[in-house]
Design goal:
271 residues, Trefoil (Acidic Fibroblast Growth Factor, subunit A), two-stranded antiparallel sheet, 14 strands, 29% strand, disordered N terminus, Cilia and flagella associated protein 161, CF161
Length: 271
Amino acid sequence: MAQNLYGPGVRIGNWNEDVYLEEMQLSMTEDGYVHYGDKVMLVNPDDPDTEADVFLGGDLSLCMTPDEIQSHLRDELEVPCGLSAVQAKTPIGRNTFIILSVHGDATGQVLRYGQDFCLGITGGFDNKMLYLSSDHRTLLKSSKRSWLQEVYLTDEVSHMNCWQAAIPDPQLRLEYEGFPVPANAKILINHCHTNRGLAAHRHLFLSTYFGKEAEVVAHTYLDSHRVEKPRNHWMLVTGNPRDASSTMLDLPKPPAEDTRAMEQAMGLDTQ
């Protein structure tokens, strides 16, 4: 967590860290699915990165990472704003996203595999919405550490804001097209315009005002079977109905994931 040498809640110039670190409340799902208008965390599930000797372990949440110098100079969110992956399980201003429709107001409707959607974030501010975006890599525009396609936050609404969810298993991908996206389950999040998957680089570190954090890019990593690697796995995490201040990540995990129940709900059970 960031250290403010002047005491908590004290501004240093125009910078006020408490806005970004203020605790937020996530939406709670009653049917097990994600809906437009839901407030969620984007989490890259814990998975040891066997391709690197040093990496950030644990569940990593996608966070906005404002430039410290720019934040000192202005009293609003910088645009464009950077992103990183952080060892944080608590929903706060900088990691709480809103599921938004790109085709008018669809609040309350279920998000489905293959549907275009946007991911917005306010960062704890009341007067501005930024959108998760990406664009093709150029000589002047790429990620800081890997030089791959960068992801960023912008206030401009365009096709660069559009993403789609897909099931990780490529053999079931077409079958699941149009089915509801489950909350708190592994999915892929792909950028529509460039067809690149959102990815967390646990082995590439960024030095930010908030500490050592991991790089996030838009790049699809495939193994020898052409299946997306864990770097591309994400969960749309919702709130814990037993405790409004925590998330579903705080609940104990069952001994094994019961995929049969999901298949029955989606009509894929052939027995």
